[in-house]
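The following record pairs a protein chain with its ligand, xanthine.
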Amino acid sequence: MTQSEPTEQKRAGRPFPVSWDQFHRDCRALSWRLNELGPFHAVIAITRGGLVPAAIVARELGLRVIDTVCIASYEHDKQGELQVLKGVSDQTATLGGGTGKGLLIIDDLVDTGKTGRMVRSMLPDAHFAAVYAKPKGRPLVDTFITEVSQDTWIFFPWDTGLSFQPPLKDGAG
Ligand SMILES: O=P(O)(O)OC[C@H]1O[C@H](OP(=O)(O)OP(=O)(O)O)[C@H](O)[C@@H]1O
Ligand SMILES: O=c1[nH]c(=O)c2nc[nH]c2[nH]1
Ligand SMILES: [Mg+2]
C-alpha cells in the first residue's frame, strides 16, 4: 500500500462509537439469541476482538470450555494479508467432531467477511456469531445483533477513550 492510499477506517468515513455499556447490552442480546440455538460444547473466540464478546456469552450460557483461533489482518485500521497464528486445539476439534458441529465461534464484527470465511473453512459446521455485521460480511455469520452500513467504522470501547467533542455548529463552543 502506498502512503497516499486511505486506510479502511478513512474509507469507511462514518464513525459508530460503541460504549462498554452498549457493548455489554449487545452481547447479552446475542446471548439470548444463542441460548435458543444451542446447546454448544465450547466457545471459540476469534482473537483479539472476539475475546470480549466470547467472555460475556460464555458467562451467560454457562460455557467453560473456551478456545481461540488467532487471526491477524488489520494493522490498526489497514487490512493486510490474513495470518492464522493459531488454530483450534485438538481437544476442541474433537469436541466438534472434526467439522465444528456444536461449537460456537464468536467475533466482535464481520466487515469484508475475509476473517469469517477463513474460520468457516476451518470449522464448516460450527455456529458463527458476531455482535455487529456489515453487508459484505453478513452472509458469513449465522447470528448477529446489529447491522451497520459498509461505509461505517465501528469504534470499540477498548480502542477508544473519552475526549472533547466540538459542537456541531461552527463556533458554538
Ligand atoms: O470481516 P473482516 O474484513 O475480515 O474484518 C473483521 C475482523 O477484523 C477485526 O479483527 P483484526 O484483524 O483487526 O484483529 P483484532 O481482532 O486483533 O483487532 C475484527 O475483530 C474482525 O475479526
Ligand atoms: O475497530 C474496528 N472497526 C471496524 O469497523 C472494523 N472493520 C474491520 N476491522 C475493524 N476494526
Ligand atoms: Mg478480529
